[in-house]
Amino acid sequence: MGSEETPDLTASSFEALNTEMRSNSDIVARLVIVAATGSATVVGFGVQLEESGVFLAAFTILLPAILFVSSQMDSTARIAAYISVKYESTATNVSWETDLMAFRAFKEGSNNYSERPRRWSIRQYELSAFGMFGIIGCSCVVLAFYFLDYGSRRSIIAITVFSVAALGLLFYALRVAVLVSSPAAIEKHRDTWTDVLSLSR
Asked: How many domains does the chain have?
């Protein structure tokens, strides 16, 4: 009987992880578009109805979208760190994730690597997406006050409280989303994976 070929489980696992990272990126891109479209629709209704409270409803779309994007980015960061520790630390010709992490941790304007990974390192596509969320959120608050009935003290208090709370949550969520894929966060994932894999061997 001829021997059956043994599947290369390492290559299969490596490809599955890369596929999941690509899937995360696709999900994030689609979600950003959906969130922007939904928020624009809410703004359109608010302008048509001339009702200040409607504009703040956009935050019910923006906040969950940012949190979900953050979770997908964190998942990608954990996978990248796993690949770096599990596969690239022993491979001789595969080091993309490891090199990319080192590149992002490189001190801009200097010729050496930082001793501690940078906590903040936002990429252009992240800046575009998060900047758009921030602009939409701020625009909704401005429009809410523009169409506010200043003759009603109750409305003024309610819109002010909800606006402050919504903007606070928005920018906190944006901060979390930026930090989850920073060099410092990825380095922390690498340290965790190193400890976990050393225990399982």
From this structure: 1
